[in-house]
Design a protein that fits this description.
By secondary structure, this protein is α/β, with parallel strands linked by helices. It comes from Aeromonas molluscorum 848.
């Protein structure tokens, strides 16, 4: 058995009661289904052909036949219902596992995989897996049991005729084998292209303001149409394989077996004086019709089976990805942070940081400055434990980061980014982010610290105001202040500002500066700064150039050196003066 299918089937074992109930219903329904033609055969051979019209018995046979049909329908319905419950339970559990894995993947995974691909695995691929349980496994088990029942009933009537009908099975098996060989590569291509469609769609929706501002609607529409065309071509290829190998070939085999049966009937003779009774003739033709339908349905489900198998491969590939380590010691951190000769590269080839060293203690502020690509944000990512370093050591309170629990470290850090992410929900929910032990008083205190409390108090719903996707009902400055308040709510020992004032107005920058001055007391503060005027009171400033510390010292010390930092500060000061003069 294919290992992916075997792994998917293992999820069913978690529902033994429903499986048992489904099996009992299936056996009852199959028994009732195959008993129907036997009753008709009995009626024809024992009562109709010899004109033995015993009406009470005939009526009993009729009622029995009707009862068997009702029992069969009820059994198959209940069996299908149980399998649907199992399918829904399995897919629910699988989706939860996939999402739980996705949010624990290391940051390096998201550097090389598009978000649309992950969305496709969580939604489209798990939906295809649900079809495996509902449409494929349920029907396959049902039809296989029915097929066995039909063959047994045929053998009880006439072994020779049963063998003629059984000739269908190896022919259908050959078709299934050929179909699998031809369809699997096509299905893999189709699922991959569907993932590309989701990625394109997700990217376009997120970048819609830029697309419209740059008048790129036609180009992006053409790119989407091209990917969609490739997906259509792959689907068409799959449909061609289905059209050739599934129903037409099975129908051809059915007609060949039917001709063989009729030829045998003609040769042996049918009727009272012949070797084959009329009732047997009817029963075999009826069984053959009931036999061909399961075979057709089983072959029709091969496409769903292949899609589920490929979807399972993609889902399990994600589930088997290495997650972030949850090991390590969970100890309270005072907040001292140090880098010792840290080297790092994203790809293992191009160095991003080389020999970076620094130390910052509670109550102190370290500022990181430098041109884009100099390694400032990389230092923050390494502090958060998003990537393992190549060499050197990162320590928190003289304890190596590698020996600490990442969850404990991150709980001790308050991160304020340049582009804050606001979740759909209330303002209070965005401040808490599920953290326990934070009451409303603490929320208002954090809002007051960032000078946002007055604004929130004026809102009709106050702290319970519903925020739209991305915080669209807030200004950019308000979103930044809310992000700062969110970082302060948990009372972190380490505060990290990743260019938090780079894209805000002067009023918001002033509010952030005041809030930062208060928040720094007793905390370790690390700030990435684009506007050098915001970090002049930092205890130490590191100027990074191509991943190396080229200058370090206080603002006054660096200005006295008349190096590159001093040049940058003078340029920004002149630019600010010109802007103020124009205003």
């Amino acid at each position: 058995m294919n290992p992916t299918i075997k792994r998917l089937l293992s999820y069913c074992a978690q529902y033994p009661a429903w499986l048992t109930q489904a099996g009992i219903c299936l056996l009852l329904a199959t028994g009732a289904e195959v008993a129907g033609p036997l009753i008709i055969k009995l009626f024809i051979d024992d009562y109709l052909a010899p004109r033995n019209l015993d009406w009470p018995i005939i009526a009993t046979l009729g009622v029995s036949y009707l009862g068997l049909q009702l029992l069969s329908a009820a059994g198959f319905y209940l069996q299908s219902l149980r399998f649907n419950r199992i399918a829904q339970g399995v897919v629910q559990r699988l989706r939860e596992q996939v999402f739980a894995t996705a949010i624990r993947l290391p940051a390096s995974y998201f550097d090389t995989h598009r978000s649309g691909s992950l969305i496709s695995r969580i939604t489209n691929d798990t939906e295809a897996i649900m079809n495996l349980y509902v449409q494929v496994i349920g029907l396959l088990v049902q039809k296989l049991v029915l097929l066995c029942g039909i063959l047994i009933s045929m053998a009880l009537l006439d072994v020779r005729l049963m063998l003629v009908c059984a000739a269908l099975l190896p022919a259908v098996g050959a078709v299934m084998w050929l179909y699998q060989k031809l369809s699997v590569p096509v299905v893999r291509e189709t699922r991959s292209l569907l993932s590309d469609i989701n990625s394109r769609l997700n990217e376009s929706l997120q970048g819609m303001p830029v697309i419209q501002a740059m008048v790129q609607e036609v180009r992006f529409a053409n790119q989407f149409a091209e990917v969609n065309q490739h997906h259509w071509a792959a689907r068409l290829k799959s449909l061609k394989i289905n059209g050739i190998l599934l129903r037409p070939l099975i129908d051809l085999f059915y007609m060949m077996v039917l001709i063989g049966l009729l030829a045998l009937f003609a040769h042996e003779g049918v009727g009272v004086g012949g070797a084959i009774q009329v009732g047997v003739l009817y029963a075999f033709i009826s069984y053959l019709g009931r036999m061909i339908e399961p075979l057709i349905e089983m072959t029709n489900q091969l496409n769903q089976l292949q899609q589920a198998m490929v979807a399972g491969e993609r889902v399990f590939a994600l589930l088997d990805e290495g997650r972030e380590s949850t090991d390590g010691r969970s100890v309270p951190l005072a907040g001292r942070v140090s880098f010792h000769e840290v080297d790092f590269s994203y790809d293992g080839v191009q160095p991003v940081l080389q020999g970076v060293s620094f130390s910052v203690s509670p109550g102190q502020m370290l500022a990181l400055v430098g041109h884009t690509g100099s390694g400032k944000s990389t230092i923050i990512s390494l502090l958060m434990g998003f990537y393992p370093i190549d060499s050197g050591e990162i320590r928190f309170d003289d304890t190596p980061l590698a020996t600490l629990s990442l969850a404990a470290v991150r709980c001790s850090i308050g991160l304020v980014q340049q582009d804050p992410f606001i979740f759909v929900g209330t303002l209070a929910e965005n401040l808490r982010l599920g953290r326990e032990g934070i009451d409303e008083t603490r929320l208002w205190q954090a809002l007051d610290e960032v000078q946002l409390a007055e604004f929130v108090a004026q809102l009709p719903d106050g702290i319970e105001t519903q925020l739209e996707e991305g915080g669209k009902n807030l200004s950019a400055g308000q979103r930044q202040l809310l992000s700062f308040a969110r970082a302060l709510v948990g009372d972190p020992r380490i505060l990290i500002l990743d260019e938090a004032t780079a894209s805000v107005d002067s009023q918001t920058e002033l509010a952030l500066s005041k809030a930062l001055a208060a928040a720094r007391r007793g905390r370790t503060t690390i700030a990435i700064a684009h506007r050098l005027s915001t970090i002049v009171d930092a205890d130490e400033i590191l100027l990074l150039t191509r991943g190396q510390v080229s200058e370090r010292g206080s603002h006054q010390g660096l200005m006295a050196q008349q190096g590159h930092y001093a040049q940058l500060f003078e340029m920004q000061s002149q630019g600010a003066w010109l802007e103020e003069k124009r205003a």
